[in-house]
Amino acid sequence: MKGNYNSIASYYDRLSKIVFGRAIVNAQQFLIDFIRPGSTVLIVGGGTGWMLEEITKKHSSGLNITYIEASEKMMELSQKRDFCANKVDFINRPIQEVQLKNRFDTVITSFLFDNFSAATSLQVFKQIDEQLLVGGSWLFCDFQLKDDQLWQKLLLKLMYSFFKLTCNIEADRLPDTNTLFDRYHYKKKLLKTFYHDFICSSVFRKEAD
Ligand SMILES: C[S@@+](CC[C@H](N)C(=O)[O-])C[C@H]1O[C@@H](n2cnc3c(N)ncnc32)[C@H](O)[C@@H]1O
Q1: Nearest to 69 by CA among 118, 129, 3, 121
Q2: How many domains does the chain have?
Q3: Ligand 1: distance of its center to the CA of 19 in Å?
């Protein structure tokens, strides 16, 4: 399996703040507002788990969270987070190797799909889609490229070189997730951009086929 964040887990959050300031945090805080009380939530690729604490500030109890994270070091950090009276099931495996029995009201993926080739994106997308209930929300956050923004292309190239070197990720370009959301019958309910449009947070609702 390609892509291992162990070597950078201890400084990942600090590094992202140096490069993007509060934008990465703000983009995900925006999505947390769309989690309903008492819901079942699937988080895939949660990183150091800081989002668990942000979620807990809004919902100190009642959530049933399944938290899937491939890196052991990221998982160690995540398990130390304070999630109050919410129930969190931690699964330290790549999502592709996980068989989930339950289904979810809400799915959260932030900066996950930018790790994947087109083929892996399709596989992971299908797998997550199967776990989300019709009418449920997919809270999605990732980078996007605007055609005329050379600085975005250069920064993305630099980021891919860094993550290839340190984490051996398989991707070298952003996958076309908008097409996947269209193909699998999702309706974009809301979109907000951050960091001069380079980061995009979207709320997708799963419609019936
Ligand atoms: C770029 S980091 C983003 C972390 C976090 N979502 C954030 O925004 O701070 C991507 C995370 O996804 C995890 N990851 C990558 N591929 C994965 C997979 N196939 N299954 C589960 N987690 C994965 C990595 O270990 C890493 O923690």
Answers
A1: 3
A2: 1
A3: 18
